[in-house]
Each structure stands twice: as structure tokens, then as C-alpha cells.
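Hello again,

I reread your note about wanting to compare the complex against the isolated chains. To keep things tidy I'm splitting this into two emails, and this first one only covers the full assembly. Below are the input lines as submitted, including protein chains and any nucleic acid or small-molecule components. They are followed by the predicted structure of everything together. The single-chain runs will come separately.
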Amino acid sequence: MKAPPRLQALIEEGLIDTVARQLMSGKEAQVFVVRCGDETRCAKVYKEATQRSFRQAVDYTENRKVKNTRQARAMAKGSRFGRQAIEAAWQSAEVDALYRLAAAGVRVPKPYNFHEGVLLMELVTDEHGDAAPRLNDVMFTVEQARAHHATLLTEVVRMLCAGVVHGDLSEFNILLGADGPVIIDLPQAVDAAGNNHAKRMLLRDVANLRDFFGQFAPDLLQTDYGPEIWDLYQRGVLSPDTPLTGKFKHQAGAVDVGGVMRVIDDARAEETARQLRTQSAR
Ligand SMILES: Nc1ncnc2c1ncn2[C@@H]1O[C@H](COP(=O)(O)OP(=O)(O)OP(=O)(O)O)[C@@H](O)[C@H]1O
Ligand SMILES: [Mg+2]
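Full-complex prediction:
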């Protein structure tokens, strides 16, 4: 196909040779299959902020590292320079997370380059060499569902041990590659230690895995891995080979007022983001 303008710069730089086809147009990006020498890769072209949904409205950007105080002030004020800085932080968060997770041994697409708002990465493929399906597009037996659930829980733990919470993990953001599940789509990934929402996001990620695989293996619906994982993490004793039980005794201790307020604030922010989304979809 004719290369779309956003990929032209990468062709000029010699980073890609040709554009084979468009794979997907998601909410936040367009994804293309490209050829680089004799390799096939995947190019994720981020949409401009105005065309995107509003995942970042829910304070995912809290505690994102910014380069300097001028940038931080501009981001807080919402000036044009500030919006550009937020934009850049959003896009580079995915690249940063991919490098960090690949180094920690998490099965994510191998990142190759990030240039002009385009992320070049490994194309995850199925056993025939075709672009891999999302979990949502596949049916599983009870045994397969249990096995993938266990694999993905270990991946979540490995990510957490590397200091990262995905924040939008679901059957739509996991591909079934020839070698098993591969986690994708990380621009909203947060720093596990420095973000007040990290716990809630981790619990939601783990609950999404349970609910999805629980459709195929209903016994999984009784499990409670999220709070167990977070508790071990917080006590500093979590490692990728810590045995997990799926059971957690919830403490009926003192009420954490700050925590409750945060949940209320989060619900409000999510509702605002939802309204913005429906408005922009109209
Ligand atoms: N590395 C990859 N290999 C194969 N397919 C990929 C890869 N990255 C993305 N895709 C495909 O492109 C789709 C969109 O990618 P991604 O989820 O990263 O972007 P998005 O804009 O956030 O999409 P959405 O809004 O649908 O979540 C994925 O569902 C998947 O089918
Ligand atoms: Mg996605």
C-alpha cells in the first residue's frame, strides 16, 4: 500500500522499507504491518491527542517523570507547550514500559525504535505467521483457560516486581502468539510505587483476567489473587516465583478514609472521562 504520511519520515530515515497493510485502527493509534529488510514488523502510529479517547483523563499521568520544572508547570497549566509535553510523556510511557518489561523477562512485543510518534516493534504472530488474534477472539478449553490464566498472573507479578502496573489489562490487550499470550498496549502503564492509583489498577487488571478466563473455567471466579499479590508486594516479599494461593483474608481493621476518598475521586474521574468519550463519539 501507499505509505501514510505519518510513516513517510521513517521510510526516509531508512527505519522501514515498505508498508504492507493496516492492521487496526484502535482508539488511540493506527497499527500497520511494515517490512524492514527481510523482517516484518509492526508500526503503531499514535493519534493526535484530540482524536484519542480519554484514558489519560483518569490521572494515569500522576507522578509521570517529567524532564524539568518548566515542563511540569506547563503541563499543570495546560498551555500548548504543556499539552505537547503531556503528549510526549504519554507516548514515551509505552516505549519506556516495553523496554523495562522486556528487560524483566515479561513477554511483550520487542521494541525496535520510537521515532516521530511512531513505535516500531515486533509483530506478534500466530503459528501460521499471521498477526496474532486478541484473547477476545479465541475460545478456550477449561485446561487452556487455567493454563493461560496462570501464565498471565505470573506475568502480572513479574511486571509488578519490575515496578510497573499495566492499568488496562484485558482480553483486548493480550494477543495469543505462537509461543503463548503476549501483553500489549501500555501507554497508560503506571509506576507501581509512586502512583496512588496503582493498587486499584492492579486489582482491576487481575480481576479482568479472572472474569475473562472464568467464562471458560468457572472455578477461577472464586479466586482472589489481586489483593494477595498486592499484599505480598507491599510487604516487599513478592517475587516471580512466590507461590500464590488465590485466597486472601480481608482484614476488618480500621477504615482507611484516604483510600475511600481516593476510590470516590477515581469513580468521579472515570465518569467524567466516560462522558467526554460519549460526547466525542457523537
Ligand atoms: N505488536 C503487535 N503485533 C501484532 N498486532 C498488534 C501489535 N500491536 C498492536 N496490534 C494490534 O493492533 C491493535 C491495537 O493496538 P493497541 O491496543 O496497542 O492500540 P490502541 O489504539 O490502544 O487500541 P485499542 O483502542 O483497540 O485498545 C491490537 O488489538 C492488535 O490487534
Ligand atoms: Mg488496545
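For quick reference: Helices lie at 5-12, 69-77, 80-103, 142-161, 198-214, 225-234, 257-281.

B.
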